[in-house]
Amino acid sequence: MTRLTTDPVDLALDPDTGDLSLDGGLRLSSGLAGVVQSARIAMQMIAGEWFLDLDLGVPWLERDGVPASRAIFGQKFNEAKLTHELGSVLAETPNIVAVTQLTVNFSATTRAVTVVWSARTAFGDTPPDTLALGV
């Protein structure tokens, strides 16, 4: 059976908390909302985290298969390296046609990263989305 690009792709998550969205029971995420959810999950996935594909994810931390030279955290912050890694992850997300905005902000005080992104998808343009990491 062939899966359509409009078919539900995952259980719907609350975009603010990342927890399962239980308003009225479990729901599935699809279309534009499904693409946004998939992109958010992909940007937060740590390279080597998923046992079926150790190369999948962002090299947030140094670990087996991720040398220190490629890791994002654990060394001096490199905005260009993170922007490149996240841009690659977004470009590889199913149904994303083009990344239209990708801004990375690092706070030396809190050591947190804020990512603002948007993309053109097979279902239309995403609104700008903010993802806070490390807080």
Task: Present the secondary structure layout.
Elements: E1 10-11, E2 28-29, H1 31-44, H2 79-92, E3 96-107, E4 112-121, E5 124-125, E6 129-133
Antiparallel strand pairs: 1-2, 3-4, 4-5, 4-6
Identify the CATH class. Alpha Beta
- Biggest β-sheet, characterized? 4 strands, antiparallel
Count the DSSP helices: 2
Beta-strand segment tally: 6
CATH fold-level label: Nuclear Transport Factor 2, Chain: A
Which residue ranges are poorly predicted, with pLDDT under 50 across at least 5 consecutive positions? none
**β-strand amount:** 15-25%
Shape: globular
Helix content: 10-25%
**Mean pLDDT, rounded to whole units?**
87
Structural class: alpha+beta
Alpha carbon gyration radius: 16 Å
Q: Give the CATH architecture.
A: Roll
Domain count, please report it.
Answer: 1
SSE order, one letter for each helix or strand: EEHHEEEE
Describe this structure in words.
The protein is an alpha+beta fold. The protein has a single domain, classed as Roll (Nuclear Transport Factor 2, Chain: A), CATH 3.10.450.40. It is 21% helix and 24% strand. It has 2 helices and 6 strands. The chain has helices at residues 31-44, 79-92; strands spanning 10-11, 28-29, 96-107, 112-121, 124-125, 129-133. Strands 3, 4, 5 and 6 form a 4-stranded antiparallel beta sheet that branches. The chain has a two-stranded antiparallel ribbon with strand order 1-2. Strand 4 and strand 5 form a beta hairpin. The radius of gyration is 16 Å and the shape is globular. It starts with 9 loop residues before the first strand and ends with a strand. The relative contact order is 0.15.
